[in-house]
Amino acid sequence: MRLLYCLFWLFLMLFPPAHGMAKDNQSLPEIQEIARKFVLRQAEALPGNIEVVPGPLDRRLRLPKCSHPLKAFFPSGSRPTGNTTVGVRCTGGTPWTVYLSVKVAVYGKVVVATRPLGSGSPLSLVDIHLERRNLERLRQGYLSDPAQVVGKRLKRPLGLGAVITPEVLKIPKLVRRGQQVILIAKVPGLQVRMKGQALEDAGAGEQIRVRNISSQRVVEGTVTANGIVQVQM
After folding, report:
1. What is the rounded distance in angstroms from the CA atom of residue 214 to the CA atom of residue 127?
2. 3 pLDDT higher than 70
3. Which stretches make up the SAF domain (predicted)?
């Protein structure tokens, strides 16, 4: 009987119960959550709503429970958007490092076409609306304010649901080459106005070269309104 008792305890020492082993292993969901929160912090400055989905870890993975707080990091070459990789490291008495894939998507509302649109005609509010899209996939850019689109014309036709990008919009020319314009230079507490002659066509927000009629000096400025060019002093 005593022999059986000793054999029983020897068996427990060599083969501990499964639930006891689980307590000594690091929780895999905890590793995933550490990675998710780390990526969220790194991407919080990005515009739009950020969604982070950690990839699965092999359920057969057995890592000793870390005696220190886990630390997440980006391996060399990783980035905080798209499909990326995150490392989670234990710096405790039994150190280990594991890597997992993470999908990061940034969603936001962008201007899209409500119907097929031809080129040339001015766009109105009935032609566009805001729609939620994955911003990471919009490599050609996007617009998030309908006011940036209304009144503009398209350089080429667009289909239903197409994202309207800055590149497809024609910017109305507010200044034409040879036109007389007003040059405005601002300094703290002072605004100077001069007459100039435009040397090229330009729309709102575009850079343009202008000849100062008084000094004949050629300066660069930004078109701010019809016939108005702001220059830096």
Report:
1. 46
2. no
3. 108-170
